[in-house]
Each structure stands twice: as C-alpha cells, then as structure tokens.
Amino acid sequence: MAKANVKEQLLTTSVTLLHSKGFNATSVQDITDAAGVPKGSFYNHFTSKEALGMEVLQRYLAAVAAIAAVLHERSLAPTVRLQQYFDGMIAANAANDFHSGCLLGNFSTELSNQIPAMRGAMQQAFAAGADSLAAVIAEGQQDGSIGNQMPAADLAAFINDAWQGAVLRAKAEQSRIPLDRFVRLVMSNILH
C-alpha cells in the first residue's frame, strides 16, 4: 500500500511541477524533493522521466475529459453544451490564476521534437478533442442552432487551435480576458 501512496505522491507533485515549471526545467530531484520521498523511490515507480511525463499527460487528459463530459450530455442543446464546456475550461485555467496554461499545449511546445511517443499521445489527444467538438457542432448544424455550415471537423479543429492560442495569451497576460473573448467570438460569430 505504501508504494501506491509514493507513486501517487510523485504523480500529484509532478502534475503540478511539470505544468507550472515545464518538463525540461523540472528535474527528478525537484520532483522527489517536492513529494518528500527519496530520489530512489522515483525509479521504483517510473523507468524514466519520460515515462512519468506520459503518465502526467494521461492524468491531465483525464481531468480535461471530465470537463468535456458535458459535450456528450445529449439532454442539453448543442450550444448549451459548448458554452458549458468552455466555461469549465476557463474555470480550470482560473484555478491556477492563468499562470500555467494548458499542459497539452505546454508539452506540445516543449516536447514535440524531443519525445516521439509524447508527440503521438498529444496528436491523439488533440484529435479526440476535435472529434468531440465536431460531433456537437454537427448536431447544432442539423438542428439549426449553429448556422455556420462549414464542415464540422474543420470548425472543431479551428476552435481547438484558437483555444490553444487564447490559453497562451491568457497565460502571458495572467488574465481571463483572452479566454472570454475567444468564447464570445466563437459562440456569436464562428458558430452563429
């Protein structure tokens, strides 16, 4: 049981450190010091820092999936689902005062050329997110609540890309203003 607790301490600490400081700027020693465990414990649970990074990414994506669950809530109108999803994503960014940005975006910038397995996992995550958005957009196009008739997949990909830019800007400004502007323009102009 203690081993599972040590692994959990390492993962929880790593999510925070890697998200705020970055992958390359965070050493294994930084992680074990912050987790309050001996450095040797790290290698009892992870074969490498890259393996830890993959688990951290999966944990982060699970948290995003929990926010995105509203996109699959078919009892709500498509535009309501989209608005609630964006509200949830903004709240998640606000929880860290807009300092950390999106771990997926941060890792994409930092690790895409360094760790091929990480790049593949990030590509899959971006594609899955776009697919979820595209399904809701297509529903809205069918019921008339979304007037833009461009292919739903193209709209979803653009919205995902623009979201990443808005998050980056919010991180630089440490403000929600870019995210609020993003949602306002997407909902009232892009999808109108």
Describe the protein.
- The protein has a single domain (56-190), classed as Tetracycline Repressor, domain 2.
- With 192 residues, it is an all-alpha fold.
- The longest helix is centred in the last third of the chain and has 28 residues, at 116-143.
- It contains 9 helices and no strands.
- This is TetR family transcriptional regulator.
- Keywords: DNA-binding, Transcription, Transcription regulation.
Structure summary, number of beta strands: 0
Mean pLDDT across all amino acids: 94
| Fraction in helix | over 70%
What is the level 1 CATH name? Mainly Alpha
| Terminal CA distance | 53 Å
Q: Low-confidence runs (pLDDT<50, min 5 residues)?
A: none
CATH topology: Tetracycline Repressor, domain 2
Count up the helices.
Answer: 9
Strand content: under 5%
- Element order: H for helix, E for strand: HHHHHHHHH
Oligomeric state of the chains in view: single chain
How would you summarize this macromolecular structure in one to three sentences?
The chain is an all-alpha fold and 192 residues long. The chain is 76% helix and 0% strand. It is built from nine helices and no strands.
Q: Key terms for this structure?
A:
mainly alpha; 9 helices; single chain
List the helices and strands and how they pair.
Elements: H1 2-21, H2 28-35, H3 39-45, H4 49-68, H5 78-94, H6 103-111, H7 116-143, H8 152-173, H9 177-190
Pfam family, one: TetR_N
Domain HTH tetR-type: 4-64
DNA-binding region: 27-46
